[in-house]
Amino acid sequence: MAIYPVIMCGGSGSRLWPASRPSHPKQFLPLVGALSMFQETVLRVVDLGQEGDMVIVAGIAHGELISVQLAEIGVLATVLLEPEPRDSAPAMAAACAWIAGRDSEGVAVVVAADHHMPDGAAFRAAALTAVDAARLGQIVTLGMRPASPSTAYGYISPGEGPGPAKPVQAFVEKPDAATAQAYIEAGHLWNSGNFVVAADVLLAELEAFAPAIAEAARAAVEPCAKGQSVLAETFRTAPKISIDYAVMEKTRRAAVLPVDFAWSDLGAWDAVWQASDKDAAGNTIRGEALMIESTDCLVRAPAGMQVTLVGAKDLAVVVDGGQVLVCDLASSQQVKTAVDQLKAQGRETVAPAAPFHTVAEAAAWFDQWLKTSALPLWWALGADHVRGGFREALTPEGAPVEAPRRSRVQTRQTFVYATAGLMGWQGPWRQAAWHGMDYFLARYRRPDGLFRAVVSNEGEPIDETAALYDQAFALLAMATLNQADPGHTDLAAEAQRLLAALQVMRHPAGGFREEGAHPFQANAHMHLLEAAMAWAESGGGPEWQALAAEIVELALTRFIDPEGGFLREFFDEAWAPAPGEDGRLIEPGHQFEWAWLLERWAVRTGEARCHQAARRLYAAGLRGVDAKRGVAINALNDDFTVRDANARLWPQTEWLKAALILGEHALAPAQGLARYLKTPARGAWRDRLDAAGTFAEESCPASSFYHIVVACRALPAATLKDPRTHACK
User: Fold this and answer.
1) What are residue 454's phi and psi, to 5 degrees?
2) How far is residue 593's CA from residue 588's CA, in Å, rounded to a whole number?
3) Do the Cβ atoms of 114 and 27 come closer than 8 Å?
4) C-alpha angle with apex 291: 286 to 295, nearest 5 degrees?
5) What is the pLDDT of residues 653-677, one digit of tens each?
6) Residues 699/703/705/706 CA torsion (nearest 10 deg)
7) Quick check: helix, strand or coil at residue 461?
8) Which strand ranges, in their side-by-side order, compose the sheet holding 400-401?
9) What's the average model confidence in pLDDT over 76-88?
10) What kind and span of H or E run contains 308?
């Protein structure tokens, strides 16, 4: 009966806001020492089992974080990632199903990742005692002898019986203060939430009391191997319920082992203060702080942030991610109430920690946001690790949104992660980029060599339309991935085949004809120009330079109004402005995006007309900036009256890119873009800001990531004082 340490990494630790957030919850924070709580837990339990026998269950969003933190302490483990959280019963069931599938007599020592137990030896001794009881068929929980009448914990009433582990008489919920005192006097124990149980015993009890959980768990672990794996989609079908409600309050096997060593779940700031080392005045400080006549306080602040307390007592002051918490330590449990209210108001997180004062400051912030939050989030949750490809959207909280899959999302996400590789991201950019490209090539190719528009979640064709816009993004993704990771699939040959297939879309009057209601448009040509330039800049043949030159000429002579200097969207078959309202449409975001492309072409070729046109387009785009909200709006008419005062995210990225390449003031667009990145799950974004300045409550489209990553890549180049350096060089 081998022992398998199991670490449960669920929970968001909202009472430890603002340091603990869904994207980086408390278990991965160093709260009372140099190591995170997760790392301390790993080192506490690793010697209970054989090397590599540890099992970790965590949310899919934290997979990369776990890999990094395990590597830092040199420990191997099997990591089972939940496609969505289903509470402790399904999580424990998955771990036990994995263990039972490899060792029918294995015993799981199940611990929470975020508990503080400074005496590791005492814990291990207690765990081994509990293992003896577990081998006799008991499900043992560790009951902590209370140090105080706490209202923060549930309690266990132990019964009488032989041996150190006693039968459980009752589990009771968190009490009020008077009841907690009565519980202590009656000999009740704190419910630590740590369990020791034979894997097959827990599964048998689940089959008796919650069979749907057992069934889902067994099926979910079938494809999982040692290392890191995502549990199968069947895990989502498990009822969402805690192990206490699913099993412990029903089974006759429940036992409690009373233990008497220091323990805390560090559930709130008062618990962190209690567990931390303190100075002579009772203060615990992390960061820079000046304490004047202040006692028994907790201060946490990032580097470069000075905190000063004068005449304070029993306060927590926590600065993190642009948010500041000041609370009486005795009221620490109420922080969750504050977080719930902020969440309801969309203010749980802020984008920039403070207004950017320099472009370099903005570049550093966006780079950190991209590499530590957005890229990990969208690979963990935005990619479908079971069926392949990328999902269309996430909620602002980070939950996957199921919808038919457009080809442009697959190619844009491929572009994003290939660009991340070019930017030096240390995460799994190569795996993510090929995940998208392989799925795209397998699921979207039509017999004629073009690529269809939409497939189902299972990869079956839904819309066979081959839009020029979508072919352009296929070419852009191929060029960028070929540059980032050459030598695998022959993407240059793929691009040549697609370019040849595109010739059927040629228009006799020049350019290409698009599918749909607006066959003669600038937008699809803009992205085809971007793709042709990417191939030309990365060593493609002369055909790419020729294609780019052709589209540039079309823009200079047809798309851009010769008098007004602005660019229209829709045209007739002679490339004259389309009749009616269609021909009057001006999109500020596209004025900026074309300015960025034409200035790049001017730098590459020395074409003076392009530089002049880029300047005029930029000026036209500025006519669509709402100074009150600090954002570029969606649409104008050709007389520059407002057509659509709403403001999507993508025009902000294009404003920023154009400002950077033209050497214009870039702080305003950087600030405007940062507002959209203020979401409950850090790394997501808001898509639409209405005329009143309120963001729409809707999902975050994956397609926006393409715009964001190019802007993020352009920002560091600006800090090198070369405003003409562009993102796709």
Assistant:
1) -145, 140
2) 9
3) yes
4) 90
5) 999 999 999 999 898 899 999 999 9
6) -170
7) strand
8) 400-401, 393-394, 700-701
9) 92
10) strand 306-310
